[in-house]
Amino acid sequence: MQSLEEFYRSKFNQIPENIRNGVGHFNVFTIDEYIGKSTKPVVYSRKDYFKITLIIGKNRIHYADKVIDIQKHALFFTNPQIPYKFEWIDDHKSGFFCVFTPAFFHHFGNLNDYEVFKPNAVPVFELTDEQLNDVTQIFRKMQAEIGSDYVHKYDLLRNLVFDLLHYTLKMKPASKAEKQQANASQRITHLFLELLERQFPIEDVRQRIHFRSPSEFAGQLSVHVNHLNRAVKEITEKTTSEIITERLLQEAKILLKHTEWNVSEIAYSLGFKEATHFNNFFKKNMQITPIRFREMV
């Protein structure tokens, strides 16, 4: 995982003072300043900070187990749980990006509640020319504020990040879950998803997830497993088992692609008692073995 300090050291050879202060950290940059023949490629890795990037120009993004091609311009949202890297396709490349820590929004909501930062979401949103102009204006306002001496500038910068989030979310029609009023099913589903995500990312071979079945999650949430299953199905239109399987597969593919751990170590970290159980699970859902998947990527 690349830390915020390592990001600044690689870009500027120095680290800002008070980078980990109590109010969190925020900064905004123009991509044009960090591209060229001498530019170091972004290494495929997790970061310990959030990042929103406006990409102008053809780009290929390697995100978790996916490869996403951008033909013109797009917004890209990344969180500390999922690794990624950029691969510029042509010489025309420009844009902006901002970085911030979870602490920057500590008293202003949970960023992981926003769909664009959820691990199973598609984090790339292609923009029309008109949308590109709107988003560019938001980033330029960020640049103007970050350089000002206004005492409340970080409040304004938070608002501008929220402007980006809501501008992007409004591009998509509201899902069934978003349209429903808050109820018990939403609350229990939210708690289930939060408990599931707390187990990730896996960053050490000694780390191991503890909850893999609907009944284990139901026990932790002190509800009957049937109640949990009904609530999750109502809100997400997926079964509890499907969501758990999707998340385990995503992390398995990340570990196979991103680490040199052997299959037994990955199986252990994902809560499987035997490597053969993990092999069977992976092959059943992916139609290939973990070793073959690693060879392919």
Automatic annotation (TrEMBL):
Residues 186-296 form the HTH araC/xylS-type domain. SUPFAM superfamilies: Homeodomain-like. The keyword Coiled coil does not apply. Keywords: DNA-binding, Transcription, Transcription regulation. PROSITE patterns: HTH_ARAC_FAMILY_2 (PS01124). SMART domains: HTH_ARAC. The keyword Transcription applies. Pfam families: HTH_18 (PF12833). GO terms for molecular function: DNA-binding transcription factor activity; sequence-specific DNA binding. PANTHER family: ARAC-FAMILY TRANSCRIPTIONAL REGULATOR, TRANSCRIPTIONAL REGULATORY PROTEIN. This is AraC-type DNA-binding protein.
